[in-house]
Design a protein that fits this description.
With about 220 residues, this protein is mainly β. It has one domain. It has 1 helix and 16 strands. It has one helix at about 20-35, and strands at about 45-50, 55, 60-70, 80-90, 100, 120-125, 135-140, 140-145, 145, 150-160, 170-175, 175-180, 185-190, 195, 200-205, 205-215. Strands 1, 2, 3, 4, 6, 7, 8, 10, 11 and 16 form a 10-stranded mixed β-sheet that branches. A hairpin with a 3-residue loop joins strand 2 (about 55) and strand 3. It is globular, with a radius of gyration of 28 Å. The termini are far apart.
Length: about 220
């Protein structure tokens, strides 16, 4: 009887060699798939420190320092007040006056465009009665306005309780802005860059800034 041209099925099969490059490619594709596809993995925010400058589109912001300051009592019936201060040099790059604003009451909230509103998370958190208080310095004293094309020294501060020790450092999650229109308003305007997460909008963190807290100093 003649054996079929295909040969016997009992013959041992030769092992197939898979090049190491192909295995590496398959592994990379698998990891990419787990991350949600090419180009879709979230970028980590910029890690910045004292002296760094961040382009927030609406503002150019220099993170000057964090420090402890003391306001001396003005009368014998008052008491000294200590604060942890965050110090910034902020340039308004828009065409209209902007607000100094305040950091949001709850972390990671999208708020009306203001400088303070872009500080979407501050760590460590302080109790509500500690602040924050925010203002810009001007020749006439304090102001809550940031004028177009002008660089202003901005102070965001929290009051320390008696004998409360200040933190070693402050960490700021900072958002940015974009000038655009949407389906609710065809006229372009400034808004915070955000993304949808669990059926709500949250700010996109552009930078995470770490500022060591300097001890001592008078306000």
């Amino acid at each position: 009887m003649t054996e079929p041209s295909g040969g016997s099925e009992n013959k041992p099969r030769r092992p197939v060699a898979v090049p190491a490059v192909a295995l590496t490619a398959f592994t990379a594709i698998g990891i990419t798939a787990l991350l949600g596809g090419l180009g879709e993995a979230a970028d980590a925010p910029d890690a910045l420190g004292p002296g760094a400058v961040l382009d927030q589109a609406l503002f150019d912001t220099k993170f000057v320092e964090s420090r402890v300051t003391t306001e001396k009592a003005e009368t014998q019936f008052d008491e000294d007040k200590r604060f942890v201060e965050l110090v910034f040099d902020v340039t308004n790059k828009g065409d209209e006056t902007a607000s100094v604003g305040l950091p949001p009451a709850k972390p990671n909230q999208v708020s009306f465009p203001s400088f303070g509103g872009s500080l979407v998370k501050i760590t460590p958190a302080f109790p509500e009665d500690a602040g924050p208080f925010a203002y810009a310095l001007s020749k006439g004293g304090e102001t809550r306005q940031l004028h177009p094309g002008v660089t202003s020294r901005v102070i965001v501060r929290y009051r320390l309780k008696d004998n409360e020790q200040p933190p070693e450092k402050m960490v700021l999650d900072v958002a940015s802005f974009e000038f655009r229109s949407d389906f609710n308003n065809v006229t372009p305007e400034w808004s915070m860059v955000s993304k949808e997460e669990k059926d709500k909008l949250v700010p996109e963190i552009k930078a995470r800034v770490t500022l060591p807290v300097k001890k001592g100093g008078a306000a």
